[in-house]
Specification:
8 helices, 6-stranded mixed sheet, 197 residues, 2 domains, alpha+beta, 6 strands
């Protein structure tokens, strides 16, 4: 017997809830006539995390789905989980069998955040690389998830942009200052010198 991804996703959400996370599987969100349907939704200290889960061989589909979730502002962090090696030991598995298979299973895991999608590479000249980890256990999945959450929360995206804008403005001001006739500028702007007395 084979199971649908949705079964794995719901049990994964249940396992995450047992570990203290506020997770819900196969959610339907209503946003302006659209219905995003993330596989697992986690709310962690105000940060919305979506987990998209797929069977083996669907990695590219996971990446595209996570990019869409971020572009549609469904989440701040999207976790891609490929159920790489999740084996069920019985012919007629129960929910408990699926839960145990996930706990023993291995996953390919990747992370995308809003920082990866806003195009900071244009400002900073740094190309961000997709994080992907292969053969990850369930406990390691939790560790990577919390690590990615910490990076998203601590990420300073405004500072580098302000710094780059400052550099561009300074360069512009320097170029303009060498080519501007100050006396002519005063005349055009009708600026008069102060008279003392």
């Amino acid at each position: 017997m084979s199971l649908r991804e949705e079964s794995f996703n719901v049990i994964l959400a249940e396992l995450l809830t047992e570990r203290g996370l506020k997770a819900l599987g196969e959610v339907i969100l209503r946003k302006r006539r659209r219905r995003p349907e993330p596989d697992v939704l986690i709310e962690l200290n105000g940060v919305r995390i979506v987990i998209e889960g797929k069977k083996p061989g669907m990695w590219e589909s996971l990446v595209k789905q996570c990019e869409k979730r971020l572009d549609d502002n469904v989440c701040d962090l999207c976790v891609m989980v490929e159920y790489a090696d999740v084996k069920l030991d019985t012919l007629m598995p129960s929910q408990l069998d699926v839960k145990n298979a996930l706990l023993r299973g291995k996953f390919n895991v990747g992370f995308l955040s809003y920082v990866d999608r806003v195009g900071l590479d244009k400002w900073l000249g740094i190309t961000r690389k997709l994080e992907k980890y292969a053969g990850v256990s369930f406990n390691d999945l939790l560790t990577y998830l919390m690590s990615a959450y910490s990076r998203v929360v601590k990420e300073d995206i405004i500072g580098p942009v302000i710094e780059r804008m400052s550099e561009v403005l300074d360069e512009f001001a320097e170029r303009v200052s060498t080519e501007v006739n100050v006396e002519r500028l005063k005349e055009v702007l009708e600026l008069k010198e102060r008279r003392e007395g």
